[in-house]
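Duplicate of earlier report; Lysine-specific permease input re-posted below.
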Amino acid sequence: MSKNNKTNYQGAKSLKPGLQARHMTMIALGGSIGTGLFLASGGAIASAGPGGALLAYIAVGIMVYFLMTSLGELATYVPDSGSFETYASRFVDPSLGFAMGWNFWYNWAITIAAELSAATLIIKYWFPESSSFLWSVLFLALILGLNVLSVKGYGESEYWFATIKVTVVIIFLIVGLLIILGIMGGEAVGFKNFTAGDAPFHGGFFAFLGVFMAAGFSFQGTEMIGVAAGESNNPREHVPRAIRQVFWRIMIFYILAIFVIGLLIPYTDPNLLKGGIENIGVSPFTLVFEKAGLAFAASVMNAVILTSVLSAGNSGMYASSRVLYSLAKRGKAPKALAKLNSRGVPINAVLLTTLVGMTAFFASMFGDGIVYTWLLNASGMCGFITWLGIAISHFRFRRAFQAQGRDLNELPYKARWFPFGPIFAFVLCIVVILGQNTAVFTGEKIDWYGFVVTYISIPLFLILWLGYKWTKRTKLIPLNECDLSPTVKPAE
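Output:
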């Protein structure tokens, strides 16, 4: 950006670091604990049995661990709010960075709208006759306010949102253990539900594959730490600490929670398949709390799930606006989106993202459930594409580091198990992407409607990538020409 363009902006010249270590940990942790655990876990157990669900979540958890360590190595060496866009542009190809940035922005901007629609459905548990439009306005105003104030406002709100979710999971695990042992809820359950029917594994390979996909969606959001690193007070210390803590916490919370649900609720329980935004009363968490005699369980879980969807919307607003800001700084988006207010917030990027979030208002006109489903389908596999890009970028970064004769001791944080980690994550991401909806191919005829709805994200990404590559004539950057200079702040 030229000097003249800089002077046209009234406000800060760069993003202002304001995220502390506790914020970083909770941003990564809170981003992955939400409706995927509170609601989708029940359907996973019903589809593949407790053993199948447990195995799928363990496999995806390991993949996410490798992705997080890859991202940690990149984010500590080059802390930048552009994150995935920056790394792909510097270590792979500028066209891939362009596509990664816009893909990520689109994914989370749409997620804001989807989460707002979900919030209106949840609030109707208490106020069934209330206006969807009114609740959408109120929730969007809340998210916008938290993001416009400062990065610290986002960090503090996300810290407390995540704290609520973590607290509920811990209470759930304690209550579940007491029921299993017979201390609460009557007779000890033991392992009988884990082996009921044809459990622990049920439904065969394709059922397991479907749960594998659902588990992947559940873990999405952990990559937020890469964006937040650009506004951390001390990314070289905070990011590695957050990654080390988050992996074990996620594995404990997810794996133990699913194990407890599998022990307490047989996979044949029809309520497991009904759990969803429209029916909080049969969330597996609610069912377990009710087994313990806690009659208010549905209301409590409703409130917790409401904080979860607001947290997801809040994180989506933050991360997508920062990546959009980074794209603008590098000439890959309109320059006006690089404008910062006096508090160092990319105000125009936040406002544009808010406009996309306003599509949630259509929920009041066309029916909440339908719009919510379509908004989710619209974002499709964007999150998995982001993960794929992280694995590729890290592999290329480390290879470039070695090709240029650099000492690995220069890295503030080194990802373990290289090159196995990014290769393993890459392969599993490909499996997840291609296997998203195998059901469209298994019928007598191909379900073309289902095929398009499921896989539309792939051609959209390819259009962005190849379109930019064709118009700008970009090429794969040779390893010995990759820019390995560390930067603390986004490029000016």
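The chain has one domain: 21-472.

Merging into the original ticket.
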